[in-house]
Amino acid sequence: xxxxxxxxxxxxxxxxxxxxxxxxxxxxxxxxxxxxxxxxxxxxxxxxxxxxxxxxxxxxxxxxxxxxxxxxxxxxxxxxxxxxxxxxxxxxxxxxxxxxxxxxxxxxxxxxxxxxxxxxxxxxxxxxxxxxxxxxxxxxxxxxxxxxxxxxxxxxxxxxxxxxxxxxxxxxxxxxxxxxxxxxxxxxxxxxxxxxxxxxxxxxxxxxxxxxxxxxxxxxxxxxxxxxxxxxxxxxxxxxxxxxxxxxxxxxxxxxxxxxxxxxxxxxxxxxxxxxxxxxxxxxxxxxxxxxxxxxxxxxxxxxxxxxxxxxxxxxxxxxxxxxxxxxxxxxxxxxxxxxxxxxxxxxxxxxxx
Length: 354
Known about the structure:
Blueprint: E1 3-5, E2 38-40, E3 43-45, H1 55-66, H2 74-80, H3 88-97, H4 107-127, H5 131-135, H6 154-165, H7 180-183, H8 189-197, E4 202-216, E5 222-230, E6 233-239, H9 241-247, E7 256-266, E8 269-279, H10 280-287, E9 290-295, E10 315-319, E11 325-327, H11 336-344, E12 348-353
Helix pairs in contact: 2-4, 3-4, 3-6
């Protein structure tokens, strides 16, 4: 009946404002979360205390410190936090969950700043001096020195989010494939359930590995339980001992995979067992045989340049605005990223794969 507010999980600030603004407006309830879950206008505002490793005391401290004066940037946040409750681990979890997104959208940069923020807060606490007293004004700007950091990929960002929250809030690791997974006939969990109830006994799915557990049967044989996820849900897959040994390295949490599954019905429940698994990128590339690109009246030939110099098994043809189709010579090493780039090009009408 509602939706989850995901644009800003923790709601440290209602919006970005320049440091010269000395009269910050109150935090907007549209963005700000509380210590516990809040439901307003059919929107669920995520609870700070529900972020793993934060806890109710730290969550209440954030809400109290924020009050009606939202944090403007990382420096101001550092000047106001209580390091005993908002320590390095808690701050890292808030970053991973997206809690600082409204004041620093680059989560890798915010993560790199955490140690300095906590260190600054600890020094201020030891001095027993408020930052405002130090500068003679209530909210003087604080400049943090942020050490060099490695940017997170979108997959890393989402994996950290999952670790902190227990679900993907702002996207899914499979999103970057767009409709390509459907084009190459890989199922999602919803489709797999429907197909199984219609009589299917096996299917190839695209998924992200959330968790892999290894157990022993009463007979002492090792087996695995693989938890997979896609945009339609998450589910468990039984992995027998031989496949567990064979594919263990390909089933690490965070891995994006193509998994061939045997399916069956137990009452109304769909049960699945693993037949084989391989990296998703590899499986998608293997499935491609032809790429058909239809250009617009003002074509973007440059978007096709990424294909030149590659070698593979995919035939590529181009159709111009007059309907004239030309097949490019040779075969090309087309990747999912190339297909998505072509589909995003303003000079290309459509990209079909087979």
